[in-house]
Amino acid sequence: MTTAVNQDSPPRRAPLAGIRVLDLSRVLAGPWCTQNLADLGADVIKVERPKLGDDTRAWGPPFLKDQDGNDTTEAAYYLSTNRNKRSIEIDLASPEGIKLVKELAKHCDILVENFKVGGLKQYGLDYDSMKQEFPRLIYCSITGFGQTGPYAERPGYDFMIQGMGGLMSITGERDDLPGGGPQKAGVAVTDIITGMYASVAILAALQERNHSGLGQHLDIALLDCHVSMLANQNLNYMTTGKAPGRAGNAHQNVVPYQVFKTSDGFMIVAVGNDSQYRSFCGAIGIPEYATDPKFVTNRQRILHRDELIPVLEKIMATGKRDEWIAKLEAVGVPCGPIQTIDQVFDHPQVKAREIWKNIPHPTGGTSPTTASPMIFSATPVQYKRAAPLLGQHTEEILKELLGRTS
After folding, report:
1. Where are the alpha helices (DSSP H) in 117-184?
2. What is residue 175's predicted lDDT score, i.e. its pLDDT?
């Protein structure tokens, strides 16, 4: 039974309204996590080094332009992962700074940090030290390799983890083809997926705290998250003992599921089942290939991939991209163009979903941002703050939480 909603009732609060996060992280994995929490309504206090701040503030060009078209000090990279937060400058190397962090922690539910293992122990800000004073604090540590194991104390970076974690061994063209060799992803996917896993873990710990009344330590490692996200490729190896290799733009387990060159560009065909394959064959004019015993099932198409794909490539090259897309869409075959990022934001579906947002910015006038993909029917994400200037909210936070001005 559903209960009717009173249209005159007050607006519902954001999902994480009333939750406060002390963010000691920088660069990407940690800030991506805390931006998620901020988007969900948490008050995220970003602690930054005096005068320097988050490393990514300087990771440009490009930089945000001011209203006269001149560069501001805010790099696009930094803007991409720090919206809806407040910034405070604190020197963690000073006794006063350490004391201030602990005072702020009294008013926080969550602490997120991505220092090297043991890096905060010298300041008494590690989990074992903090949990004695703040037993309800959910303390999330994000590192390259985790808190345990022979690599625990080593630094970890997205690019090196993409190599160590196996992604580059399955990304790129085959060695026997032109351009063959390992490739990294075009986005720091290890950092992003780590930030996502950290977000999920924090939300789960918050829910558990509702029952136990206690916080806990979350040990989130780039390598762990990266290996986990390999998904079916891991199981391809784990069930056969054979490590999968690079397949370029083809799929290891589904055929045809790849990029095809047309007479005027490139497109993707993503045939996900045998019914779609039959429709595909009909649409491109080779219905006999739909019933050929060598190709009739996906299993057979994988076994005879090298015979089937050249035939499909030759046919697809004879037509124009958009004409092929229209034909395939008409019979329910998943397909689409390969677009540049400017074309992505000009796409009617992307426009309809309002993925490009603009937020007021103190030096840039407005700052563009990519909308959160988390869509709520009753408590939508609010885009209240652009990524903050360094120390922009220092006095505000000190006065609000600690009742002091410095």
Report:
1. 127-133, 158-164
2. 84
Mean pLDDT of 51-73: 93
Express each pLDDT in 172-215 by its tens digit: 988 888 888 898 999 999 999 999 999 999 999 999 999 999 99
Domain ranges of the chain: 20-228+353-402, 257-340
Length of the chain counted residue by residue: 406
- Please say whether the beta carbons of 171 and 229 come within 8 A: no
Question: Where are the strands (E) in 188-293, listed by range?
Answer: 217-221, 257-262, 265-270
- Asked if 202 and 110 touch (Cβ cutoff 8 Å), the reply is yes
The CATH code for residues 20-228+353-402 is: 3.40.50.10540
Q: What mean pLDDT, rounded, does the chain reach?
A: 94
Q: Which residues are catalytic?
A: 191
User: Could you tell me the pTM of the whole model?
Assistant: 0.91
Q: Do the Cβ atoms of 71 and 63 come closer than 8 Å?
A: yes
What does each C-alpha distance from 96 to 93, 101, 134, 234 come to in angstroms? 9, 9, 19, 48
Annotation: CATH topology of 257-340: formyl-coa transferase, domain 3 (3.30.1540)
